[in-house]
Amino acid sequence: MTAQKFKLSVVFGTRPELIKVAPIILQAQQDDRFDVEVIFTGQHDELVRDAIDFFEIKIDHRLKMMNAGQSLNQLLIQGLQQLETVFTDGQKRDAVIVQGDTTTVLAAGLSSFALKQAVAHVEAGLRSYDMDHPFPEEGNRQLVSRVARWHFAPTAQSGQNLKNEMINPEHICVTGNTVVDAVRLAKQRMDDGRSQKLMQELGLNFNPEQKVVLVTAHRRENFGEGIEHICQSIQTLTEHYPELNFVWPVHLNPAVHQVVHGFFKDHKQVHLLQPLDYPNLLNMMHRAYFIMTDSGGLQEEGPSFNKPVLILRTTTERPEVVDVGAGVLVGTDKELIIEHARRLMDDKKYYQQMSEVENPFGDGHASERILERMYQDVFGR
């Protein structure tokens, strides 16, 4: 007897979203029970292309949600209008997958809900409970939680957050984080020779003995004084450690780009790069001694490479990385950044405590659990 087909739509708009839904798409395409439709909203167009190519994802619907100078409301309206055009094509969809907390996620979640299509929220239940940090992501994910049919929580803590908010426990499934699946897939596609070649292409010819710190910062809440404090901290650390190198792929937003280049243009120890494509970013995480970041994704990926993470935020919706000891919240406080960076450099025991923890985000098989749960819920066990 032929299995019933599950019509699955997967929506993404940014590179972090694609990285985390790519394992689901690829897994579903290998499973004869699923008919997969991939929708790219274009929220971040150029930054996504490398990951689309790397994972060899075929796009079925390519939208243009982003226009120059848009407000968040205008971005949301574009998303709602363009997604409705796709979702009203007469096809019955068993589920629409959204991932994370971007405006794409909110638009796809609300649009699907209004059209009575079941929403599956991947990476559900992350909470800072501070609507300003991160903004607008905290509001987006809380809103989507109210309309989702499936809540695929990456950790037990995120699942508990949803239960505390009176989400039906029968609709919550703790799966692990698909970013671990993505790293596992990416490692299969890379080898040491390619890794060395990528480094050379970036003009980074470090000796194996040289320690390298990967830095990223792009959050709105760190614009202005926050970015300046991060730069000042790094400047101090270069004076303490003349052999230490910092690699900083600088976000294109002028609020970040101008400040960072103002501090470090032509600095011998601080290597400023264009935003890295996904393979190069993974390669830099692998090469780094530790990571300084305000990125949610890097907080998750760092433990997959056994790299300590200094989190350049005052709160995190991924408390697991702090709870297990793989990361520490330093915000943009210069004294805290310098203190913990120096401990990682000078205290081997402290470094080992942070780098040798069990990955709190799962075993790399979250995608399989997500697909199986949806199929069984729709077509029976």
From TrEMBL:
<dbReference type="Pfam" id="PF02350">
    <property type="entry name" value="Epimerase_2"/>
</dbReference>
<dbReference type="GO" id="GO:0008761">
    <property type="term" value="F:UDP-N-acetylglucosamine 2-epimerase activity"/>
</dbReference>
<dbReference type="InterPro" id="IPR003331">
    <property type="entry name" value="UDP_GlcNAc_Epimerase_2_dom"/>
</dbReference>
<keyword id="KW-0413">Isomerase</keyword>
<comment type="similarity">
    <text>Belongs to the UDP-N-acetylglucosamine 2-epimerase family.</text>
</comment>
<feature type="domain" description="UDP-N-acetylglucosamine 2-epimerase">
    <location>
        <begin position="29"/>
        <end position="372"/>
    </location>
</feature>
<dbReference type="InterPro" id="IPR029767">
    <property type="entry name" value="WecB-like"/>
</dbReference>
<protein>
    <recommendedName>
        <fullName>UDP-N-acetylglucosamine 2-epimerase (non-hydrolyzing)</fullName>
        <ecNumber>5.1.3.14</ecNumber>
    </recommendedName>
</protein>
